[in-house]
Amino acid sequence: MLDVAEENIERRGEPSTRGIFYETIRGANASDKEWQRNKDLQTRQEAILTKLQERFPTKDSLIAYLTEICVEDYKKHQEYARKHHFRPREYNVRGKVAGELFERFVSAENDVYDLYAETKHTDPLPTDPIQKLKEEKFIDVFTNPEKYGFQHMEYFNIPDIPFIVTNEGDHMVLRAVAEVKSSDHLDERLYRQLLPTGIRQALVFTLERLNSLTQKEAIRRGLSGFGQGKEMYM
Fold it and tell me: What does the alpha-carbon distance between residue 218 and residue 144 come to, in Å, rounded to a whole number?
C-alpha cells in the first residue's frame, strides 16, 4: 500500500522519482501483501532496476534489444539446422526473452551488490569501470568469437558473469564465473555445463585463445588489455 505522501504525489499527477521498470514491478505487486511487507526486497529490486535503466533508459530500448537478441538467436538456430540437415523446432520466443531478461537482471544486481563478495562473505572490490569493460569483453569473446577473429565453436558453454581482478604486472585472475538459472530445478543442460567438459573446458580454451595473442594482435582485434604480458589465469 502506498503511503500518504506517495498517494498525494500520484493524485497531483506529478512524475514519480522511481524508474519505469520499478514502477512496473510495483504495479504488478500492488495487491501482493507479502511483497508490500518486504521492504528489503523492494529496496533491492529498485536498486537493480535503476541500474538496468542506465543501460535501457526506455521500455522501447529494452524491447529493441530483446528483439535483436531473438532475431540473431533464431538465425543461429536456423543455420545450425540447415548445416546438420534437420528440421528446426518451433522457436521459443517467450523462453528466450525470459532467459535474457533474467540474465540482464542478475548482471545489474551484480553491478550494484557484487555477488561474488556477497556469496563469499568478503569485502566488495572497489568499483572499476575499466575492469567492468574487461569482464564484458571476456563474455563477448565467448558469445561472438567471430567478431574477434576466432573460429565459432558449436555447443560452447558460455558463463553469464565473470569475476575478474587485475594483479600487479597487468596480469588478470579469473576468480569465478556465474551461471544464472531461473528454474527451481537443475536440468540436464546445467548438469552438462557443470561437467569437466562443460564451462570449465570452455574457460580454459578461451583463456588460451586470449593469452596466445601478441599485444599488437590483441589491439588489432579490439581486445586491448588482453594478450601476452596481460595474461589471464584461473
Answer: 15
Half-sphere exposure of 113 (CA within 13 A, CB side): 19
More confident residue, 223 or 2: 223
Please list, in sequence order, all residues whose beta carbon lies within 8 angstroms of the beta carbon of residue 179, skipping any fewer than 6 positions away. 159, 160, 190, 193, 199
Phi-psi region of 147 (alpha: psi -120 to 50; beta: other; left: phi over 0): alpha
Cα 211 to chain centroid, rounded: 23
DSSP category for residue 213: S
Q: Does position 33 have pLDDT exceeding 60, yes or no?
A: yes
Sign of CA dihedral 35, 41, 47, 49: negative
Burial class (CB in 10 A: 0-12, 13-18, 19+), 72: exposed
What average pLDDT score do residues 140-144 get?
81
Distance in angstroms (rounded) separating the CA atoms of residues 217 and 221: 6
What is the enclosing helix (H) or strand (E) of 178? strand 172-178
Length of the chain (residues):
234
How many CB atoms lie under 10 A from the CB of residue 109? 21
Q: What's the predicted TM-score (pTM) here?
A: 0.73
Give the rounded distance of the alpha carbon of 19 from its chain centre. 20
